[in-house]
Amino acid sequence: MAKRQVQIRHSRHNMDYVLLTVVMFLVIFGLLMIYSTSSYEAGSDFGDSAYYLKRQAQSTVIGIVGLIIMVKLPYRYLQRFDILAVIVSVALLLLIITPIGVTRNGARRWLDFKVISFQPAEVAKIGVIIYLASMIQRLEKLGRNVLRTPKGIAIIMIPPVIIAGMVYLITDNLSSAIIIVGIAVAMMFVAVPDYKWFVIMGAAGVAMVAALVMYVSNEDVTDSGFRLARIKAWLDPEAYSTDRAFQTLQALYAIGSGGIWGKGLGQSMQKRGFLPEAQNDMIFSIICEELGLFGAITIILLFVILIWSCMVIANKTVDRFGSLLVVGVMAHYAIQVILNIAVVTNTIPNTGITLPFISYGGTSTLFLLMEIGIVLNVSKSCK
Asked: Most buried residue among 149, 216, 258, 337 by CB atoms closer than 10 A?
């Protein structure tokens, strides 16, 4: 018995180094690809080919500090801030409509506090994960059937839906709103064993999307809003090759020209003024062009390992709150990776979403690394 206790105590100090290694590789690879992808544009616009690399490196260093803090801070402390996480998320989103809200690239999504600027939508994602993990555990203590009652569902789902609605209405950021709702649904899916309601909701969602696509394909929606026009451009990109589908077509050209092994690192042609903002949402297409199908599959496999590691940790964690935290982070990564690659390959309409750890974006990298710190913290308490 004593030997068993020693073994358990020892295992509680071993975090998942496989996950940490994969994440660090993705971070380093991301910096390399940001420099490769943005050097031409940065040199033309700012006179410094490493402009984007330097900014991303600064955010990465801060993110690694955040990761270390989250690894050291016992994750159970986060449960004390479940309601506060929602309040802070809502407050930060409301601040966007004040003078400290900043517009960049035509979108008002940032807060500028002079010392630091960030997107409140990224804070909202981690806030929703903490809130849901805590509330689900608290309701389960009252009985697992409580989660199936209208009151239980309302407690769980209303705050994330409100936050997602605010993200969409205030920042006009549909992709982040989708991710927040997706995180909430994924965590409820894990917590509630009755899957028939999720099947019904999924079927209803597919039917609505199919009806929308059929409507857009048969109607002239060019003047009905840019989102409907985006769907039209997605259905027939060649017809919108000079405006709404230009970026998507250039990304597809990059993917197609890469072949199996690619043109070589730094040898992309599309990044040289043809593909707008290549270092952001469309960086995966440059990976395909420079490193080919082999490089693209390698990156996808690394993300699969990352998500799989999170799933293993969630299954082995003895604490329900910790397990749900990991499920939320896993859902966040899975949804964001799938959406980004689907957009780049024109599988779904363009929604403007970054590839975790690889796309340029300081706020995203900071909070993604903090989320990984939470997962690594939880992994120390695995069986």
From this structure: 258
Q: Are 167 and 183 in contact (CB under 8 A)?
A: no
Question: What global pTM score does this model have?
Answer: 0.90
What does R_g of the chain's alpha carbons equal in angstroms? 21
Considering only residues 120 and 225, tell me which one the structure prediction assigns the higher pLDDT: 120
250 Cβ contact list (under 8 Å, min separation 6): 270, 274, 275, 276, 282, 285
The residue type found at 49 is S
- CA triplet 333, 337, 257: central angle to 5 degrees? 160
Residues 256-280 have pLDDT tens digits of 988 899 998 888 888 887 888 888 8
Cα(314)–Cα(364) distance, integer angstroms:
23
Cα–Cα dist 369/23, whole Å: 8
For the segment 302-312, what is each residue's pLDDT rounded down to a tens digit?
A: 999 999 999 99
CA distance 342 to 297: 14
